[in-house]
Every structure is written in structure tokens, then in C-alpha cells.
Structures
1.
Amino acid sequence: MSVLIFESSAVGYIEAEHLDKRFVDQRTHRDNYMQKHRALFLPGGIRQLYGFLATKEDMEDFNKHHQGKSRLKYEMRSHNEMVVAPMKKMSEDNQQLTYVKNKGVKTEQRSKVVQGTLDVVAQKLRETEEENIFVRRKAKEKHSEYEEEMKSQEKFFLDQIENIHKALEDKEREFERLLQEERAKARQCDVDSGTTENRRLRKEQVQRFMYCQVKDVQEFEAEADQLIKAHEEKKVQLKKEYATKEVELEKEFDAAFTGLMEKHKPNTFQASNSS
């Protein structure tokens, strides 16, 4: 009689069970071994091998018939402890492993989907950025065109104003020339010839003319000062009104552009936490 020792684990027990079943199928199990007329040899003189799972009594009997040799130490443990519980744990571990694998597959699939989505979004962002660059370049070109047009219009109006100023200066010079010319005529008037009465009358005429001219020039200068002052005040008021309207226009544009950016404000990205 001999003992075949298997691994002290659930796997070892399953292997022992498989071997035990094989002996049962071959009709060389315990029941066959216990028969009085069991076959001891096979045809050809080969010894017949019997086998079965050992019980406590089998182990005691084995040690009893092997006195003088080292006793085979053994420990009786429950089937539930050695087989059922480990197999259950193995099943749970396999299920957990399967779950982890499936989760890994799903995670990888989601990662691929997310990566694909990110690639599409990134491509869209690149296209949008290119479009924005194009739009900004066009807007800059338009802005430059508007500036050139405004400069051209400003130059046109400044040229008109300059022409008006030059024409007015020409009129002033002509006005001054006429004053000097008439004053020279009065000074060149012959007041020394003729009768005494005629000389007196001509002198009085020249004096009245010179007096009236001086007085008229004084009035002209006073009225001109008032006119220039009123003109400058109107220019200041006009520039103030223009600046005020320009500020209001810029504020209106700022509000409209801010509203446009708010309308097209990108959504906040939030990563999904679902498993």
C-alpha cells in the first residue's frame, strides 16, 4: 500500500478527485479493492493498481502497517475550508478579474471614443482658429481701409478750410490795401492852392475823412475781435460735441461687441466621472 500526496490546495484536491473518478470509471476503486476475489494481476503478470481518496481510517491503517518507518503526518480539515471556500474565492477572483478586464476594455473603448471626439474637437478648434485669424486679418484690413478713408476725408475738409483761410487772408490784404490807398489819396490832396476858403474847406474835408477812417478802422477791429472770439467759441463747442458723440459711439460699439462675445461664449468643459 502506498500514498500519493497532492498539493495542499483546492487545485490539489480537484486533481485528486479527477484521479479518484478515473479509478471509479475503471472499476478499480475502493469497493473493487475491498472485494475478496479482486483481481491482483492483469494479463501478462502486471500488478493491478487500485486507488481511492483516503479517509482518516485509511491513514491510521497505513501508519499502523508501516511501523518502524516515519509515520505519515496528516491533518483532517473540512471540505468547505479546503475546497469550497477557496474555489468560491477563485470564482470571485475570476469574476473580479473579468470585471476588471471588461472595465479595462470599456475604459479603452471610451478612451478611443473620447480621443476621437477630442481629435474632432481639436480639428474644429484649429479650423475655427484659422477662420478667426482670417476674420481678424480681414477686419484689420477693413479697419486700415476705414482709417485711410477717414484720413482722406479729413484731408479733404482740411484742404477746404485751408482754402477758406487763404481766401480770407487775400480779402484782408485787399481790404488793408484799399484803406492805405484811400488814406494816401487824402494825404496827397492839394490843400495849399486856391483861395483861402477853398484851402480851409479841403483841409476840413481831409481831416473829416481821416477821422472817419480811423474811427471806422477801430470799429472794424473791435467787431472783428468779437467775431473771431465767437467763431473760436463755436469751434470749441463743435469739437466738444463731436468728441462727446465719438465717445458715445465707442461706448455703443463696446456694449454691442461685449454682447456678441457673451452670445458666443464657449461652454465650460467638465470631464465625465462615470465609470
2.
Amino acid sequence: KKNAPPPLCDWNHETYLLGIELGISGRHVIPLPTQPSLLERFLTVWGGRPSTLVSDRLRAATRHLTKIVGLHSEDARITPLERSFSLYRSIIDGNPNVEVIDNGLVVKGGLNILWRITPGRGAHNAPYLIQTMAPNKVGLGQPICMFDDAELPLGDRLCSVVLGLLNDDKIIHQFEQIKYAVHQYKIVNARDHITTALGDLFP
């Protein structure tokens, strides 16, 4: 027997908030128990144990209670996709080495290499492209493949990519694609430096 999907939840500084869509009345939230044992029991029953009958009654009672005392909150992030992009946004806003550009992000990793993340059809059908970017932000390397779990919400997947690229000096030892991209970046960058130097000597 398949368990019921988990409740849609947001959180604040005090507790988790269960969210319910109430049609034309909009999105409402109600706080969940703060005690770990009660919260665990609530989620167990919600998921269908000991029976779907008990689970159905709990969900119906919760919906009814939310209608009566729940707080109207259209900004509540109750779906996995909304929560994932909230986390993604917090990573971007909280890191000076991540820059928002017109069509994506530029991430400066521990190797002082710039990585560009933009929408597009990437490796293994990922919905984004990852490329090294020249210091002048014009030249781009070949798109690379990184770890990607298509079952996760998109925001979570992008969080993994951004955090990984911020630590490119560490993951270079784990991912051949990163190692190769860094190698190519250094070759092209060295070639550009030589060309510039020759241009200065022989204008």
C-alpha cells in the first residue's frame, strides 16, 4: 500500500506551518506541533498508518480546522518547488561570490575560476548549462556535466550546483568533468595572456 504524500509545509522561526489551499479563499496555514514526538505521530497518521481511514479523518479534520483558525498567507512556501527556490535564493543572496546576470548566474569558485549557469538543455537533459567563463565574461568553455538528481525539485538541484562550484577546489578531485574544464580554462587563459603580451611588444 502506498503512503499518502506528506503535508505541504512552510516554516518560520518557531515551528513548521501546514499549508492548505482553500479554493477561492486562498492559501492558509496552521502551526504544527513543536514537540518532536507529537510531530512524528502526526506525520505517521497523515501518511496512512495505522490505516487510510484514520489518515483521511486526520486530513479532513486538519482542513476544517485550518478553515476556522488558519492564517491567510498567500506568501507561504508550502510546495517542494517553492521551498527549494527559497533555499536557492538564500544561497545566492548570502554569498558574495555568486553574481546574478541577465540570463543566469556567475559563480566564482575556490580556484578563482568563473562558472556560468544559464537556462538550456544541459548534459543528461538537465534544464541548465554549466560553463567556465573567461575573466572578460565573453569566452565560454564547453558545457559540463555535474551531479544531478532529476527527482529533486529544480531549486534543490541548482543549490547543489552552486554550492559545488563555489567549492570547485575540492570537487575537482571527485569529478573528471570539472577537472577537464579547469584544465581547458587554464590553457585558454594562458594563451590569451601570451597573445596580449605579444600585442604589447609588437603593436
3.
Amino acid sequence: MLVEIPDPEVILSVILAFIVGLGGLYGYYKIRPFIKSKSDMVDASQSERLEYYERQLIDMKIRLDALEIQGIEQKTEDPNLELKQFLEKLAKNEVQEKEVVISQEPEKVPEKPVSTPKIANIEHTSPTNYVLHLITNKAMTSRDIQITLKKSREHTSRLMKKLFEEGLVQRNTESKPYTYSITEKGIAKVGEVQTNSTVV
């Protein structure tokens, strides 16, 4: 196997380039400490700022120590005196509150029962007829009707919508929640139901 040796000019140029590179690196590292970069300038301002804050902290620590020493000299009697006085006042207040609570008798507030309107005994096989009887005397909200019917809110809403669309009830939209009152057509239907129930 034959190995070809390159020309001496090529070898010299590679060696020369290597030496120039080493010389450049050496020169850069020697000159670098004398060149101030922007980051070094920022570091200098930050170090000045840190020194300022350090001096402030030392000064505050000295003042705090001086205040503690003065406080200890002034309060040589009992360091927990204020705490004891506070606890005594608190205990007195608790005793007074207990006496006040014991002297007051609890007032009984009568519960207001949910009133359901009294209606003549009718067989309300149809919720429509029952609702019409409910609102004959006074206007009612759908919530009142729901409680009286003991049905769900959705069921009551659908029923009232159906009655409104049939013209049996009138919806008052000026107040919230809506109130429902009976119309002439509804009164006529109630009359029919009552005559039918008395006949049967």
C-alpha cells in the first residue's frame, strides 16, 4: 500500500495556519482583562447597588439591636405582663358574655305555615280544572300553583302555558314572577265542571 506524501508547501501552510490560530488565542486571553465589555459595566453598577443595600441592612440591624437593648432595660419587671393583662381582660369579657347569654331566654319565633287555598271539595282528576279552581279567587304565581299541585316546576310551567294558549288564564307579564288570573272563558269552564260534578 502506497501512501502519497503531499507537497511540502501544503504541509507548511497547514502548520502555519495552526500556529497563527494558537497565537491569536494566546493574544486574545492576554488582552481580554484590559478590555471592558458592556456586561462588565453592568456588573459594576450592580455590585455598587448590592454594596449600598448591604450597608443599609447593616445599619438597620444595628438600630434593631439598639432598640432591643433599650426595650430589655426598660422592661426588666415582667416580659409577659402585657400578655397577662390581655388574657385577664379576655377572661372577664367571657364571664360577662356568659352571664348575659344565660339571662336572655331564647325567643321562639312561630313558623309561618305554607298556606294552601281552601277550595270546595272537587275531584281534581284533571290538573287543568284544579288550577282553574285555584286561581278563581285570586291571581297566583306559577310557584304557588306548583306548591299546591305538588308537581314539578316543568310540569306546572307546561300546564300554565297550555292554559294561557287556550285562553283560559291571563298572564300578567308586568310583574316577575308572572301571575296568572282566570279569564271569562276559564270561569265558564269552571262552571261546566261544577255542574258536571254535581250531576254525577
4.
Amino acid sequence: MSLVTPLYFSAIQANFYRGSQPREINIPFLVTLGLKYIVSLTPEPLTEDPSMGAFCREKGIENVFIECNNEKGPKDKSKTKVKRKKKPVPIDYDVVVQCIQFLIDKKHYPCYIHCTNGELVTSLVVACLRKLSYWSTVSIFNEFLTYNSSINIHERGFIENFNIQIDIRDLDMKDKVSWMIVRANEVSESKQKEAASLNKKPNTAMKNIGGFPGMLPRLNFHGVKS
């Protein structure tokens, strides 16, 4: 039996893959990945597809559904036309934050992440993830253009301005994936309390990464186990 990959399939990290929404024809290939989780950045859960739902149940794969707008979905002509301001990009930062909070735990791998067609939504999320690995802007945009024909000013701005604080709670640090790098100022809540009890200031020195301090997202760990 021939193995057919989902469209735009590729590896992001070891045991972490990306692509388009998988179909029944892709199931034999997905079996070879030994997946534990599938993260769906789509309008509907992957399990709405009967064949994919049966596959996930049979293999014990958990589907993590983060609702996102369809990138190039068919228009419903039966609905009354209402003028709405088009969003510059199809997702908000909240989608990226939810992905990071899930993907930071190494117990959630092997994992496959996908949007409807494997292009824009997945590329935006992966581009933001790359900032946690200190990829250069040039490298991030080059990878983005591998899966998209172009990048507009809104998409570029979405990636460049992703520098928010992300709360990570109750994570055993030995379970943190190595490719999400912790900066010097990302002090856990427990460490701050410990420093306060000793009348010491926690080490919050910020590294200057690529000459742009403060332009990277920051992970705030709370209740972590070291």
C-alpha cells in the first residue's frame, strides 16, 4: 500500500509535524508517525470526519481542537450578505498562546498540527513558535514562504509583534520541550516567592537577542516543579 502524506507535510521538530487537514487517504501514513495528539486549527473538529474520528479512537490519538476561521472556505450563498471588516490575519494571538501552552509539554508528542489547507494559519503559528527558539526574522520569513506564495504587511506584523507574556502553569520542568528556550528573566512564581522570603531580588536580567530586547515572547512559569 502506498503512503500518501497530507498536503504541505513537514517536520517542525523531532516528533512534531505540520500539514493540511488529514483525510482518509492519509491514514496509513499517519500510522507510521505513532501520533499521540493531533492539534486542529480549523472551523470544525477533525473528529467530525467519520474516517478520521474512527482512526483517532482506534489508535488512541487525542484531538486538540482550537477553533480557527476557514482560510479559503466555500462561500455560503444562502446567507444574507452582511458587510464586515475583514480581519488582517485569520487568527488572534490567543490561538498561538493556546498552542504554546499545550506544545511546551514533551508528554504531548508525537504530535501533528494542521489547519484546513496547511498554509496560512499553521504557518503563522509555527512562525511565532520559532521566536521561542530564537530564529532570526529572515529564517522565519523564509520558512513561511515555503508554504505560502507571499507574505503581506499584516502577516509580517503579526509575527514581528508577537512579544506577549505567556503563562505556563503547573509544569514539571523536566517535561518542558528543549526547543522552547527559557530566557533569564522568566522567573517562576515559586522562585520569586523564595527570593522575597530571603529579601532578595529575583534575577530578571533580560538578554538582548539580536539587538532587539523585549521583542520576543516571554514564558511566565507559575507553580512549576524543578
